[in-house]
Amino acid sequence: MTINSVEFNLLIANTDESRQNGLAIYDALPLDTGMLFDFKEQDVNATFWMKNMKFPIDIIWIDNNKIVSINKNAPQPQSETPNEALTLYSSGKPVDYVFEINSGLSDMYGFKIGDDVTFVR
C-alpha cells in the first residue's frame, strides 16, 4: 500500500478475531509496516480502542482511497486499565479501511486529510 509515495507492507485484519486483537499481539512494528483493518468497503462507522497495546500508534481512517481523518500519537494505555476507562477513537464518518502505523509517522511523512491511498498487489 502507498500513501503519497510512501510504501508500507501490510498486516491484514479482515476477520472479527484479527480486528479484535489488532496490533496488541505485537511488541513493536517495523517502520515500513502497518495494520490494515479491511471492512470490505462497507462504509462502517468504526470505533477503536488501544486495549493491551504495547506502543503508541497513528490511526489513519480511509474512505474511497483517501485519508478522511487521522488520530496522531494514540498512546498505549497503562497496563490493567479497565475496559470502561479506555479511550475510544472513532472515524466520525463511514470508512472502508483503518490503517495503524507507528506513532509519529503521519507527521514524519506529512500525511493529511485528502491524501491518496493506493493498494498494490
Q: What labels describe this entry?
A:
36% strand; five-stranded mixed beta sheet; Jelly Rolls; three-stranded antiparallel beta sheet; 9% helix; mainly beta; 10 strands; 121 residues; 2 helices
Can you give a write-up of this model?
- By secondary structure, this protein is mainly beta.
- It has a single domain, classed as Jelly Rolls.
- It contains 2 helices and 10 strands.
- The chain has helices at residues 16-21, 105-109, and strands spanning 2-3, 6-7, 9-13, 33-38, 47-48, 57-63, 66-74, 89-90, 97-102, 117-118.
- The strands form 3 sheets. A 5-stranded mixed beta sheet has the order 3-4-9-6-7.
- The longest helix has 6 residues, at 16-21.
- The protein is globular and about 40 Å long.
- The mean pLDDT is 91.
Mean pLDDT: 91
Query: Could you list the spans in which at least 5 consecutive residues all have pLDDT below 50?
Result: none
- CATH class group: Mainly Beta
Largest sheet: 5 strands, mixed
Write down the CATH topology.
Jelly Rolls
The number of strands is: 10
CATH architecture field: Sandwich
Helix-and-strand structural type: mainly beta
**Domain module tally:** 1
State the helix count.
2
What general form does the structure show? globular
Strand-residue proportion: 35-45%
Q: What's the order of the H and E elements? A: EEEHEEEEEEHE
For the largest sheet, list the strands in their spatial order.
3-4-9-6-7
Cα gyration radius (Å):
13 Å
Q: Name the helicity range.
A: under 10%
Please give the structural blueprint.
Elements: E1 2-3, E2 6-7, E3 9-13, H1 16-21, E4 33-38, E5 47-48, E6 57-63, E7 66-74, E8 89-90, E9 97-102, H2 105-109, E10 117-118
Parallel strand pairs: 3-4
Antiparallel strand pairs: 1-2, 1-10, 4-9, 5-8, 6-7, 6-9
